Amino acid sequence: MFEYEMHQLRAADLAREADRRRLLREAREAKATRAERRSARHDTEGRVSRAQRRISFSRAV
């Protein structure tokens, strides 16, 4: 019975460790995403929106 209890404790410990690592990874990813958005807002050479691409010039002959 003692071995079974030790196994249960170890399994619970591993589950807690996995949850902690998952939360840390998600927090890092969220922080990186926020930083990307923040830098993209101040980027002068960002993506061109659809409205700006509709402007076309006539061909010179």
Q: Characterize the largest beta sheet: strand count, sense, and whether it forms a barrel.
A: none
Sheet/helix structural class:
mainly alpha
Measure the end-to-end span: 91 Å
Return the string of H and E elements: HH
Task: Give Rg in angstroms.
Answer: 26 Å
The average pLDDT is: 83
Shape verdict: rod-shaped
- Quick one: how many beta strands? 0
Q: Residue share in helices?
A: over 70%
Stretches where pLDDT is under 50 for at least 5 consecutive residues are none
Strand content: under 5%
Oligomer: single chain
> What is the count of DSSP helices, taking H or I runs of 4+ residues?
2
Q: Could you please describe the fold and organization of this structure?
A:
With 61 residues, the protein is mostly helical. Helix content is 72%, strand content 0%. The protein is built from 2 helices and no strands. The chain has helices at residues 2-41, 50-53. It starts with a helix and ends in an 8-residue tail after the last helix. The model has no long low-confidence stretch (mean pLDDT 83).
Summarize this, please?
The chain is mainly α. It has two helices and no strands. The radius of gyration is 26 Å and the shape is rod-shaped.
